[in-house]
Amino acid sequence: MNVRTQVTNRPQAIAATRIADNVLDLVGQTPMVRLPRYLDRADVNLIAKVEALNPGGSAKDRPARHMIESALKDGRLKAGDTVVESSSGNMGIGLAQVCGVHGLKFICVVDPNAQSQNVAIIRALGGVIELVNHAPDGDFLAARLDRVAALLQEDSDRFWPNQYANLDNPESHELGTIAEIDTTLGGRIDVLFVACSSTGTARGCRDYLRRMGRKTKVVAVDAMGSTLFNGTAGPRKISGMGAGRIPALAKGQEFDDLVRVSDITCVAGCRRAVAREGLLVGGSGGGVLEAVRGMQDELAGQTVAAIIHDSGSRYLGTVFDPEWVERELGVCEADVIAMAGLAPENS
Fold it and tell me: 64, 68, 232, 299: which is deepest, by most CB within 10 A?
């Protein structure tokens, strides 16, 4: 007798996938994920906003698109013009992507500290790289900005978005990043942790929350060696967090709390995110998560959102390279694992 087995665990109906009009329509609406194993206590509801899943791979896709499209809308830019910007990587990638869609040329001014992989991606997206090799007093940002100014003077059809002062930068996060988090969590966010460099993300998030009347506490996460928030300038090796000079957007900005993290703390956070959650985060993301871990006892019973700006896949030759970490930060892998609170077999 033939016996036919009835299948009862049929897959649920699959919802239709939205078809974007172009790659820029994929910017935003990034997913959020709970991280129940990252902390040492289970009574903190930690949820991460995964900005690496923007099409250009980082949170910088948002301001890159908003700054350029605002300039096109009001006539500061037109098709065929050239955009010039100083960037260490992610903003350059975002701008190269936007320029490609809108028929604009792009020149990205970088220095020797830029991640080689990021520079390669900018080139692959059609950007032209201007490398600044010399910096008076070691201030590469000043040297990059000087080169931007020189490039603008050479051609009147060149436009500088100026991510360090352009109010479209924080507005992109006010309209997108935090609005998405707030909507997803139904306005119930007790604490938000966000890394700072230009402070565009943190400023936009704070302004939205204040406008909506939320009681959310915004914690700015900054690098040791950063001049932000009256900090003292010092050596920094982790990109995406901190500033050697105070950008115009950051002047006078205040948040509910401030946590400074060291380079090695960021590295330890990246290792812990992989071992505990299978999540490959960039250096600033590791710093943000470790800032949460450092405050976890006072966060008991609360819902905590953490913005993870990019993926660790762009830092395989630095943050995730034990030889680089020992050479540049002076810490061996065994000590990194210990700092991350992991057993050696989990490394």
Answer: 64
Are residues 37 and 136 located together in one domain of the fold?
A: no
Q: How far apart are CA 208 and CA 176, in angstroms?
A: 10
Domains in the chain, number: 2
Q: What is the CATH number of the domain that holds 203?
A: 3.40.50.1100
Q: Whole-angstrom Cα distance, residue 89 to residue 91?
A: 6
Question: How many C-alpha atoms does 206 have within 13 Å on its Cβ side?
Answer: 20
- What is the C-alpha separation between 84 and 329, in angstroms, rounded? 33
Structure tokens at 329: 């930060």
pTM of the predicted model as reported, rounded to 2 decimal places: 0.93
pLDDT above 80 (res 138): no
| Plot region of 122 (φ>0 → left; ψ -120 to 50 → alpha; else → beta) | alpha
- Per DSSP, the three-state class of 45 is strand
Q: What is the pLDDT at residue 141? A: 83
Spatial separation of the C-alpha atoms in residues 244 and 40, rounded to whole Å: 33
